[in-house]
Each structure stands twice: as C-alpha cells, then as structure tokens.
Recover the amino acids of this structure.
C-alpha cells in the first residue's frame, strides 16, 4: 500500500480501523442513501460557509487554493480557503485557515484550522481531525493553535472548539495511519455503530457471520470485545458456553437482572428464546401501540403512528406534521384519539416516546390527560433488556421483530433511512416519499404489536412456548433459564412459592418454631417448662437489689412546693405497683446484674389542689446507662448481632432484653453522643491531614454510599444516598491540610493540597500488566515508576515521613515525569497511563513536601474495612435512620481505637468530650435513678404509666432532672 494519508482515510480510521484499512487499500463499497445524503449535506454546508466567509471579508483579504508553506502564511491573509499540505506520505486539504492575533514564527499573528462538517453536533471524530490539522499547522507556523472553528449544521453555524493542548495524541494518530499504509495484514474486524451507514456494511457483516465474530452482538462494545479476547473468547459460540445462571440479589435495584451478553449468545446458538426471571407486562382492555418518527438533533417529531386494539377490533392512525410549528397539532390529535377510553395501556419501544410526551406536556392544554398517558405507558424494551433474550444479535425493534417473523415492505427500511426520506420530501414535496414514511411508521407499530403479543404469550405460558397471534407456534420456542440447570439456583433459605394452595397452607404449619410451640409442647413436659421459662415476664421474678422511693419537690402545674403525701401511721403509703429498672455494675473483677425497684405514691398540691405522680417516675428509664453501654460495646465494638446480644443478656445475666429494645439503645446513645461526633468533625477540619474514601452500601430502600474521613487519631463515618461529591466542599469547609484520597474526581473540588493514593495507582498498573503481558512500552513506564517509588518508600521506612529526608527524591520525580512529557507511546495502554500520570503529576508526590503526610490511603481503607464486616452481614436489611445511628457510634469506636483508649470505658463514663476523657480518664457517675428524655415513654412502660404529653427527644439521655427526686433517689450507688 502506497496510498497517502487523506481526510477520507483519517475519517474512515476514526470511525472504524477496519474501514480505514479497506479505504487505504483501495477497496470501494456500495454507498447507502444515508451516506450520500451526508455527503450532499456537507457540500451544502461548505457552499454556505464559503459564501458567509466571502461576505464578511474583502476580496483582498481571502486567498483560495494555496499550499501550506511559510511563505503563504506570512502574507497574512485574513482567511485561507482550500489550503493543501502535501508530501510523500500526506495529502490533506484544509477547509480553511483563519488568522488570529498571537505571536508565532510568522510574526504577531498565527492561524487556526477551519472545518466544514454536516453534523449538527461536533463529535469526537471532528475534534480529532482538528487536532491533526493543528499539529500539521504548528510545524509550519511554529505555534500550536489553541482552538479551531467548525462550520456545521443546516443553519451553518460557526463554533469555536478548544483543541487538545498536548499534540502527542495527534502525532500518535498520524503514526498509526502511517504504519497502516505499509501493512498487508488487516486489523481485527470489530463491528460498531458506524456499520449502519458504512459502505462496507454488507461485506463486513458477511465476514463477521462467517467468523462468528463476537462483535455481532450489538450490546458488546469494543472495549468488552478486547476484554473477551484476552480470555480467549473470540466467537459468539464460545461466549455462549460461558453463561452460568447467577442468583439474583435479594434486594436488587428495580428487581432486574441486567443484560447478559453470554445469555444472548446462548439464545442465538440454540435458536431459542430464553426468559430470565419473572417478567411482568401490565395489560388493559385497550392496547395502544405507539411509534414516532422525528429528527432527534432538532427535537422535532413529524409523524405519530398508532395502532389501537379494542378487543377484536383494530384501527390505525397516522398524524403528520409538515413543519415544526405543526408538532403541537399532531400531539393534540393523538390525545383526542385516547380521550374516549378510560382503561388503556400505551406500549412503546425505547424512551423516545416518553421524552416526547414530557416535552409536549409543557404546552399541552389537557395536562391531566398527558399525565394519565405517561402513567399508563410501558417501555417494552426495558422488559426485554432485563428478562427476555430473543435469538437476535441486538435488542433493536427490527432485529427482534424479524426474529419473530415480521417484515417490512422496503428492504432498506431503518431509522436512518427515514431521515433521508424526510429530507428528500422537504426538498421536493413528493407524495410518494410521504406515503413511504407513513407505511414504514405503521409497519413499526405492527412490529411493536407483534413483539408485545409474544411477551404476553411468554408471561401467560410461563416460558413453555410462544403462541403466535394467528394461533401458530413460533419457530423459536421459549424456555426459562432456571430450567437449564437444576443446580443453577440452589435454594438455601427462604420460602417456596407453592402453586397448589393446599401445599402452601400445609407448609405454614411445618416450621420448626411453630411446631415446637404449638404441637410438640403438648406431648413434651420439658418443652412446656422451657416455654414457661422463656416468656417475657422472666424479669419480674428476679430478686431486687435496691428499693428506691421517688418523690417530687414541686407541683408540675403551679410549681408550688406545698406538696402533701398520703401517709398511714406516719409511714408513706406505697403504691400498689412499682417499676423495675435494670443495670450492669462493672468492676475490675467482673460484671454483675443489678435490679432496682422504684416506687412512688400519690402527691397532692396544697395550693392548686391537683393530684399527680412524680414526673421522674413516669419517665423512668427501664435500662440504665451501664447496661446500654455494654450492649452497644458488644454490637458496635465486637460486631455482634442484636439477636446474639439478646441471647447473651439471657444466658449471662438472666435478663430478658428484647432486640427491639437493644435497637432503641443504639438510637438513644447515638443521640446522646451527637455533640461528640460534631467535635470529632471539627478536629478533622482543623487538622493538617485527612484520609478520604467511600464505599457502597445496600439498604432496604435501595443503595447508598458510606464516606469515611480519617486522620491518624480520628475517624468520621457519613452516609449519603449517592456518590455525588457536591457536599464535600461545604462539609470540609475550613480544611487547609493535605487530603489523601484515591483518584475519584469529586475530591478535586476541595481547595487544599492533595495526595493521591499510590497503592491504588500500583493496583491499576498491575492490572494493566496482567491485561497486556507483552506490552514492552507499558512495562517500561511501570518499571521506572516502581523503581522510583521503591527508593522513596525505602527512605520513609528508614527515616519516617520527614520532609528533610524526602526532598532528595524531588529531582528523581521531576526527571521521571519530564521524561514522560517528551516520550509518546504507540501502545494504547501505555499512552493512557502516561496521560494519567501527567494529568495527576502535581498530586502524586505531594508527601515529599510535607512532614507527616503518608503516600497511601491506609487509614480510610482500614476504616472502610471495619464497616465492611457489618455491611456484609446486614446487606439489604438496614434502614437509613438506623444506619446513621450506627455510624455515629462506629465513629466513636474507631476513634477510641486509633487513640488507644477503651471504647467501652468511654461509654461507661458518660463523658461526651473525648479529648478530655483521653487526657484525664475521668469517670462520671450517673444518679441511681435515670430517666428517658422528657416527653418520651418507652413502649414497655406504656401500660404502666401513660404520659400526659409526648414530644421529640431532648438532650440528656440517661439523666434525671436536677431536683426531680428526693430520698434515696439522689444517693450514689
């Protein structure tokens, strides 16, 4: 091959490497109508742009049909049109060059490239072509242009485009094109989205079918094709053999499975429709099959096609718009068609129809009817994507419907072809083109109806076979994936959905707990004794350790101290019932149970005459702070489940504490220690170092993210419903230290020095080496980096994180990064890694300039790992409120661990200032009688003393109000 590099060659290569090879080899294919239409559109844009340029400049300021030489550019024309650059390997024609101010080798001005293109949007191929033009131009004028001009679209608009400041990518592209000119072996064939408009589409498709090429599966992108190739999977048949059914997560998002290319390949290999999971397709007496035709780039829908079925009758409707101004009219016609029907269901294929309805709702007169249509719209594609795999290479309507027997009267019918027909009609106004579009649109509606009816047959027959609309059986029968292998979904736990209702009723009576408590207990004396001992009144039989009398000092109504107490024979009259409170007395020798019986008697105010019971008695805390602290120490500090903690209370202390009560301990203590949590956050903000990381967590309501911020002494856990990092700047407001994190871009918004975790970078490099074991350029980049980092870490291991010892490595780092700037690579993996290193060059070795700043993110990762143990055990069962309470206590737990103090001792002390506790080891003693927050009544005492009012929690959990009790209530234990 001796063909020179041309614009056609570059554009073909950017669209598809295989097309670039065929183009430079001199092959020619059959151009489609759409491709010819694009060429005509480009010529039209070129003529219009030249006309506008000539109209905006004087005749002497424009030169045409010149060569790109320094002498030509130094003449300083305002605009150069059709500028050619030619040598033994390149023959390119610039659409234009525009003079702009700025010093260069030409003087106080330089030129920027101008491109004419037909597309309404400027996409990646146009930007890459401009970068090539800019590189060639910089070799002549001595300056790389910072931007280019693109004239594009039907309106022929001029848009300034910022160019890549690094010319290595353009240079690398020219090098690859040059090597392809001399190669005789074509690159690997990989089908892509450009194949729909390519002149070689039939040739490549036939070759791909003969090779059984894995890129025939339209859902598999080029990156995935390369990943499969590294595993030795090159064909659709090979991919089909890799499918293994996987159990769906118990609480997976939206109940879907996600699309699996291996199962699609299996359906093609077996010529069978596979049903994965349980698809649900809503139905109604009136079915409406909707399909739209429009110009997506102009947001203009010109044709609405509808097939409406009502029982045995069918009607077909088409609503046509000549101009964009007619769009609201055809939309109202569509709504008028649906208005008489009360119960209907609208079926569409994809999200284009729903987006159109939402857009037109803004100008609709009957918004309620539009809302009703939106709520009754079903996207058939979303159901197919998750659950149904037809023997077709893609999930497009054409491929799926053709696999089910549908056909179109025009063999070239497609969405792109409809754009050509519409453009031709707008130019000539031929009625035949309009009728062709109307027929094509209704055939799409009929194909949608066919696919929908097959889905209804699949759901009705439970995958046992697909009955066609005419009663025949489809050639591709359906089967459930679960039936492929009886061992694919082993049932480990959970209930079984019995088809026979009698089986379901019998199964409910076969559970272990039910039979022991309702059946076996009637014949076993031991079970009756065990059941009697395990009831909820076991705490009432415990021996009382201390009696406490609670008396009030003031009337709660008038605040008077003139209170009389009912007495008998000079002694207080005890009430008929008292309340028991439970606590754990913790000493150096062990832990023992304490049962406190609290009583009171009726009070009466002499001034207002009202009777009352002391408020401290009504708000009596059933479980005191020591018991709560021990429970949370077990649950948070030792990661013991609530059910096990409940069992430990029963076995070790003889107390019955229900797990719902233990869950309430978590909420109460989390509220009590909120000030401590805020104190820790303040210490992080005022410090000089923060490690940050995040991880995903599964909740009952969906998925969220746990963010961790840690220093050498403090840890903060935070829950957010998404991974968006917009809150970081405000949350860490005031922090001016060094932030150590991974390469997640959200951390870049924090205005502070940053250190990227080099362990993350090493892991990524190692994976690249595993994926590309024979890439010598990649090995050279990673090898040099490894030697540099090993020398730095050796110094750290010897002297610690001291700036005065680490500064000797700054020259080595500068030389390494400088070498990367001057050395582009042919290897795609090596070039991507080089770009990544240069992009983050200012944040890779920040620790060399500071004292005490580590080079990896181990503090945050260690904290994430500690949370991971809890997450793995409770996945999908947590609520957001309970998780946030847990994170408060977990932050305290690991902060205590980092500071070398006991989390249990800190909880016992009741101290909320962790810094003061670490300094003094101060132990605070609670009063003997402890109460719930004012206005709060625990559920277990609601039957004993009903409160007069309820209000939200207040601070001071576990404390009695000052002066609320007299007698023995105020004595320390």
């Amino acid at each position: 091959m001796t063909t020179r590099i041309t614009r056609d060659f570059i554009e073909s290569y950017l669209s598809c490497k295989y097309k670039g090879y065929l183009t430079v080899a001199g092959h020619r294919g059959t151009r489609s109508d759409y491709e010819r239409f694009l060429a005509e559109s480009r010529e039209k844009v070129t003529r219009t742009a030249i006309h506008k340029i000539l109209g905006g400049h004087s005749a002497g300021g424009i030169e045409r049909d010149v060569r790109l030489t320094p002498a030509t550019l130094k003449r300083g024309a305002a605009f150069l049109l059709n500028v050619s650059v030619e040598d033994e390997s390149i023959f390119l024609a610039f659409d234009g060059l525009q003079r702009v101010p700025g010093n260069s080798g030409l003087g106080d001005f330089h030129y920027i490239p101008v491109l004419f293109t037909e597309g309404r949007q400027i996409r990646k191929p146009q930007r890459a072509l401009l970068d090539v033009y800019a590189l060639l131009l910089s070799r002549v004028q001595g300056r790389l242009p910072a931007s280019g001009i693109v004239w594009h679209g039907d309106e022929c608009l001029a848009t300034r485009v910022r160019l890549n400041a690094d010319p290595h990518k353009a240079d690398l592209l020219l090098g690859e094109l040059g090597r392809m000119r001399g190669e005789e072996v074509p690159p690997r064939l990989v089908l892509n989205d450009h194949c729909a408009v390519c002149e070689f589409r039939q040739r490549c498709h036939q070759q791909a079918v003969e090779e059984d090429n894995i890129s025939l599966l339209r859902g598999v992108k080029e990156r995935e094709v390369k990943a499969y190739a590294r595993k030795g999977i090159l064909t659709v048949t090979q991919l089909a053999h890799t499918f293994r059914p996987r159990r769906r997560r118990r609480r997976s998002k939206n109940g879907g499975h996600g699309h699996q290319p291996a199962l699609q390949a299996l359906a093609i290999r077996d010529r069978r429709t596979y049903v994965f999971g349980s698809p649900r397709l809503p139905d109604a007496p009136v079915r409406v099959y909707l399909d739209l035709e429009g110009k997506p780039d102009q947001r203009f829908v010109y044709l609405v096609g509808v097939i409406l079925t009502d029982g045995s009758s069918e009607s077909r409707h088409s609503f046509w718009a000549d101009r964009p101004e007619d769009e609201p009219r055809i939309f109202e016609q569509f709504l008028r068609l649906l208005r008489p029907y009360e119960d209907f269901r609208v079926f569409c294929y994809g999200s284009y129809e729903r987006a159109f309805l939402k857009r037109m709702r803004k100008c609709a007169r009957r918004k309620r009817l539009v809302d009703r249509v939106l709520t009754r719209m079903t996207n058939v594609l979303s159901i197919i994507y998750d659950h149904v795999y037809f023997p077709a290479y893609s999930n497009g309507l054409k491929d799926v419907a053709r696999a089910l027997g549908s056909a179109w009267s025009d063999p070239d019918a497609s969405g792109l072809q409809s754009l050509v027909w519409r453009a031709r009609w707008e130019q000539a106004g031929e009625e035949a083109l309009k009728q062709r579009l109307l027929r094509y649109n209704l055939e799409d509606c009929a194909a949608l109806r066919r696919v929908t009816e097959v889905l209804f047959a699949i759901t009705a027959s439970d995958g046992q076979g697909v009955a066609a609309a005419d009663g025949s059986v489809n050639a591709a029968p359906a089967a459930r994936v679960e039936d492929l292998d009886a061992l694919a979904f082993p049932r480990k736990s959970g209930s079984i959905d019995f088809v026979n209702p009698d089986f379901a009723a019998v199964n409910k009576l076969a559970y272990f707990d039910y039979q022991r408590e309702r059946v076996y207990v009637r014949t076993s004396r031991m079970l009756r004794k065990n059941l009697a001992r395990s009831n909820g009144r076991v705490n009432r039989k415990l021996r009382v350790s201390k009696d406490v009398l609670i008396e009030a000092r003031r009337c709660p109504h008038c605040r008077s101290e003139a209170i009389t107490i009912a007495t008998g024979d000079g002694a207080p009259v005890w009430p008929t019932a008292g309340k028991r409170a439970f606590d754990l007395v913790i000493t150096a020798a062990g832990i023992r149970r304490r049962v406190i019986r609290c009583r009171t008697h009726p009070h009466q105010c002499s001034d207002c005459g009202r009777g009352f019971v002391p408020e401290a008695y009504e708000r009596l805390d059933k479980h005191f702070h020591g018991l709560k602290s021990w429970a949370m120490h077990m649950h948070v500090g030792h990661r013991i489940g609530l059910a096990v903690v409940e069992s430990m209370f029963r076995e070790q202390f003889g107390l019955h504490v229900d797990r719902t009560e233990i869950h309430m301990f978590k909420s109460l203590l989390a509220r009590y220690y909120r000030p401590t949590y805020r104190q820790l956050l303040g210490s992080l903000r005022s410090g000089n170092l923060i490690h940050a990381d995040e991880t995903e967590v599964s909740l009952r309501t969906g998925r969220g993210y746990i963010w961790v911020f840690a220093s050498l002494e403090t840890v903060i856990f935070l829950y957010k419903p998404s991974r968006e990092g917009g809150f970081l700047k405000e949350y860490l407001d005031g922090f001016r230290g060094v932030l150590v994190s991974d390469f997640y871009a959200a951390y870049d918004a924090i205005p502070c020095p940053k250190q990227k975790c080099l362990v993350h970078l090493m892991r990524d490099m190692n994976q690249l080496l595993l994926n590309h074991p024979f890439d010598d350029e990649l090995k050279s980049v990673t090898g040099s980096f490894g030697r540099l980092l090993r020398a730095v870490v050796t110094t750290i291991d010897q002297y610690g994180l001291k700036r005065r010892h680490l500064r000797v490595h700054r020259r080595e780092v500068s030389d390494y990064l400088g070498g990367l700037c001057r050395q582009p690579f042919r290897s795609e993996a090596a070039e991507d890694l080089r770009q990544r290193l240069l992009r983050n060059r200012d944040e890779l070795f920040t620790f060399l300039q500071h004292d005490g700043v580590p080079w990896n993110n181990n503090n945050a990762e260690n904290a994430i790992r500690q949370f991971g143990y809890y997450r793995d055990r409770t996945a999908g069962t947590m609520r957001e409120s309970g998780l946030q309470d847990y994170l408060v206590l977990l932050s305290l737990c690991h902060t205590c661990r980092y500071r070398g103090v006991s989390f249990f001792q800190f909880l016992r002390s009741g101290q909320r200032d962790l810094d003061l506790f670490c300094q003094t080891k101060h132990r605070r003693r609670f009063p003997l009688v402890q109460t719930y927050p004012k206005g709060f009544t625990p559920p277990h005492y609601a039957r004993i003393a009903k409160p007069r009012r309820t209000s939200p929690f207040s601070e001071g959990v576990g404390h009695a109000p000052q002066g609320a009790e007299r007698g023995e209530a105020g004595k320390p234990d």
Notes: Confidence is low (pLDDT under 50) at residues 249-255, 463-475, 939-973. The first helix runs from residue 7 to 15. The two ends are 98 Å apart (CA to CA). The first strand starts at residue 62 and ends at 67.
